[in-house]
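Batch manifest, entry 17 of 40.
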Amino acid sequence: MSPPGWPSELVPGGRYRVRAGRCCSSGDRFVSVSVAARVDVYASDTLDAVRSLPLLSRGGLDLTATVVGFIHWTGARTQVIHRSPLEMVAVTVRGDVPPVPLPGRTRMRSGGGPSRVRRRRGGKPAWYAPAAIAVDAVGAAGSVYTVFRLFGEAHAVWYATAVAVAWVLVRASHTRYAWRALGERGRVRPLLRDGMVLLGLLTMVRAATDEDSPSHLVPSALIMCLAVAATWQALTHRHLLARRRDGRGVRRALVIGETTALNGLVNRLSRRTDHEFVVVGVCPIGDGAPNLIAPVAARLAQRLPAHLSDDSEPVLAAVRGLEVDLVFVVSGPTMAAERLRRLSWAVHEDGCPLVIVPGLTEVVQRRVTVSTLAGLTTLHVNPPARGAAVLVKGALDRVGAAVLLVLFAPVFAVVAIAVRLDSPGAVLHRQIRVGHQGRHFTLAKFRTMVADAEQLKQELAKTNEHDGLMFKMRRDPRTTRVGRVLRRFSLDELPQLVNVLQGHMSLVGPRPPLPEEVAQYNEVELRRLGVKPGLTGLWQVSGRSDLSWDETVALDLHYVDNWSPVVDLSILSRTLRAVVEGNGAY
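Output type: structure tokens
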């Protein structure tokens, strides 16, 4: 029998009407509503599995929700209801509700104390590993068999089988099938490294056995094999991200640290869905009150306690009570080396992993090296790409720009005629922009506005829809009919290929700013000029004008700090989709 206040008709998969009521906290943190009984709907920004719904703060809003899963929350039963692929809210049912069995967890009694949780390796489907092995084996065998049969080579089946086995063994030896790696964002460099190892092994076998097949067959098959592996990585990553956005495949985390640092980490984890963690509790150090909805599961003293149990007991109770899969420790002045060591003893006694967050942000993994120095664990942060990487980028820019100019020559002619016939004025619009290290250059693009657009800009200054230094309007009256089409498909940017060929710009980089914008930059924003501006970039493939100024700057700075030729190729591959979708293109 359901306890008082428990709406028994709420079940996973069911659809219900929910009416938002009075906001009972500042901002949009949570909103009281009723669903058949005493139920609260929380628009929370603290759970990865729960996406914020700002409109819930407006009374009388109706939405249809589907219960898709359960999450423990402050001792009550919490249900996640799903409104759209990007928006979720949590329904917490008040009252003494029987505990919810969580998939993949069993509890073991240890004497009379708190139960210990047997943890899952991760919230990923069990078929990821066998499917990855099967795809690699079939991809390698199919590629080799196809190439050898096309060239009429004998023993194609034998070669295909041998290469498939070797490819799976190479991938397995590099832990590509490890649970932590499956479904995560696949990087190109490890895949290429595996391919080079396989090629080296096959070359040695060929030399040792005096095998007389044409030397180009295996490299040709290897390219197909790498393409299959890369495609599978991309598909599984998309599948895993979709699961995490829907609140599935997530792991429960406890965060320990000083209040300010703790708030920053929890908020950062809640804003993004490209990771697997849900913060189910926090453990602040000291008396500060975290500005979070996440419950305070334990609290540690400001100073290092004399007894080990003063830290270990509350942390272990929180880990076991909340069935935590992983503990984050945020570094800070009160998190001394000895205290951190004691905490690691405590959580490792329960078999729970410990992750130390050093406060280093927006630095990709390939730039960080972990080493030991005088008994201390240190992080070495390498500088952004330079030297050979710069030469490779320059070569790719010029070769790519030359090829694209030839391919798009007919488009240039058609667009030029359309611009000329649509409105009076020059075909090309030229502007002074600021490039690498503050150097000025003349940028060319197809004219998309009326001839006196710059004069009209002053009159329209008050209607700017962008929150930063850039001037943007969704329905800019200065834009011509042809100009709207050109902007929708980014065809107005094509003449910038000449700027790339001249060396003023790159194919990939931050947006080229105007001199008057740069004059208002602060010291942080000036770092955007650390690389050449680009024809496309993270800003362009992430929403363009729909992004706020702060988001634009953050993306550009991330690129400046972490660019590489491989990153450039990835952004170029995403550009075509961004152009077709046209998000923020105005």
